[in-house]
Amino acid sequence: MPAFSAGSFREDLPAFRDMTLLAATSADYWPFVVLAVSVAFIILAISVLRVHAFIALVFAALLACLMAGNETWDVVQKDGKIKVMPGLVGAVEMVSKGLGDSARDIAISIALAAIIGMCLMESGGADKVVRRFLAFFGEKRAGWALLWSTFILSAPIFFDTMFMLMVPLAMALRMRTGKDYTLYLMAICCGGTVTHSMTVPHPGPVAVVESLHLNVGESLVGGLLIGAITCFFGFLFSKWLNARTDVPLRESGGVSLDDLQGISGKPESELPSFFWSITPVILPIILISLTTVFELAHSGAAKGTGWGVAMVSLFGGEVAFTAVRGWVDFIGHKNIALIIGAFISVGVLAKQRGFGLKKIEDLMGPPLETACMIILITSAGGAFGYALRSAGVGNAVAELAKNYSLNLILLGWAVAAVVRVAQGSATVAMLTAASIMAPMLVDANLGCHPVYLFTAIGFGAMFCSWMNDSGFWVVNRLSGMTEKETLRTWSLQLTADSIIGLLVTLTLSKLLPMA
To answer: Rounded to whole angstroms, how far apart are CA atoms 347 and 143?
Structure first.
């Protein structure tokens, strides 16, 4: 029986012969054909055929691999050796490798974030943080309190979970004040979605950080700083929306108006302390950021920079500093930092509610199931991005940007925005945009720190959420808004935040390039 080869297979299929001919005669444009066809497939599969996002992304990755026209693919096997796989088998193996690599980078972080989020809600820690913010800002500035408490609490919590937590508080505030329900809702949406697109361990930012080879601590500092500035101006837009769209309070999401009175009147004695409520969120961020401080100090000392030399001397010299940095890098690794945060959050829950390990184990089930689905979808998106890179899409876009002098930050935002509008998922939009933009950083001169490209992609993935986005329906159903009201508030808010974030990113990239 003759040996199988991709070439003999393709000669028997006119479609493959036509694609090979087109690739040969229009090599510069073929990667764009691969990109257009595979993205169109995702849109059709998810939006029209209602195929699950995981399945759609896996098949899109296979399609991109086959259209790339490669005769063989190099695939890293389990034994660590490089093995050349023939034809279609190589395409399948390459998709598997892309999925596995993505899962390796994000799975633990996302699962631990789900555990922390569950513990914060069940222990009452999240409610405590919100109340402290309300006490600090005052009820007249409740919108600001909701904005910043959501911004901070959303660091380890998925947006839909965060919105479920916060919307009863927004409804209770509406009952107290008799007005500004739109403002309260949009404050939650603004703070939650910006953090969702800007900070590790959310799946989109984790994937972009890995693709762009960014330092996690730098991405956290840059994402939080630029995100906070965007939230400030985004809240001003929320106030503008509130003045023009008065959403009435309706019973929704399984929460009756009578229950809201109980939520808002829960005594402080039933909640954990503010310190232990916020520690599971803040401590991992501090630990991760410390790794960046030590890395910059070490690099600065090697270059003779004053503060770097001083910090190394503070620890007793190069040898002692290196030893300490090894431990800092360990506890500041995103997975270890989140493990520490998860242990603390479990301890707070056990002490506050008197739960045993069996009860806590039962409570972990649903959030971990949700996390597993997110991990699968995100990993499939990583496989799709891996296939696009192998098809040369990133290099083709880089060449196009070079020929037409396109701003890479603006280009990254635009790619993410187009994918977001087309298929709805911010995570998939970030994965796709990062996969396309990453190869461009190798040869192109970005002119500023790559953290700005990271934030541009994150803001592009927020653009124009509408009815193909699951977040649209979470907000719609839990808030009691109609579809028209949701389009006039949620969709406009996210579009404004996306554009504001891009402008902030472009401005800071010029004023503080840090290249």
So the answer is: 31
